[in-house]
Specification:
Elements: H1 2-20, H2 25-34, H3 41-53, E1 57-64, E2 67-74, H4 76-98
Antiparallel strand pairs: 1-2
Bound molecules: zinc ion.
Residues 13, 16-17, 31, 35 line the site of zinc ion.
């Protein structure tokens, strides 16, 4: 249950950062660990793939220094979802935190 809730927060972080800039797996893991989320590659990569399949992220593979890396950016559908979630986060915050 806790993992389910955390995973929702992780997805929101991913959408938020993919809106600001291109993101990739390792960079996201570092960013998320700064926020206290220890996300393993076994969780993160399937989550990114799921967001991509859902049409919320686009993925582009590029080779840098002989290493292939997948870069993700938010899509229009992802921006809509993020905006919808922002108002829900605000609403939740008002009740649960500020209450
Ligand atoms: Zn973040």
């Amino acid at each position: 249950m806790i993992r389910d809730l955390e995973l929702a927060f992780v997805k929101l972080h991913i959408l938020y950062h993919a809106d600001k800039e291109e993101v990739f797996g390792v960079g996201l893991m570092e960013e998320l660990s700064r926020h206290g989320y220890e996300v393993s590659p076994g969780t993160l990569y399937p989550t990114l793939a799921k967001l991509e399949r859902g049409g919320f992220l686009t993925c582009e593979a590029r080779t840098i220094d002989h290493k292939q890396r997948k870069y993700y950016r938010i899509t229009k559908a992802g921006i809509s979802l993020l905006n919808e979630m922002k108002s829900k986060i605000e609403e939740l915050y008002r009740e649960v935190v500020s209450g």
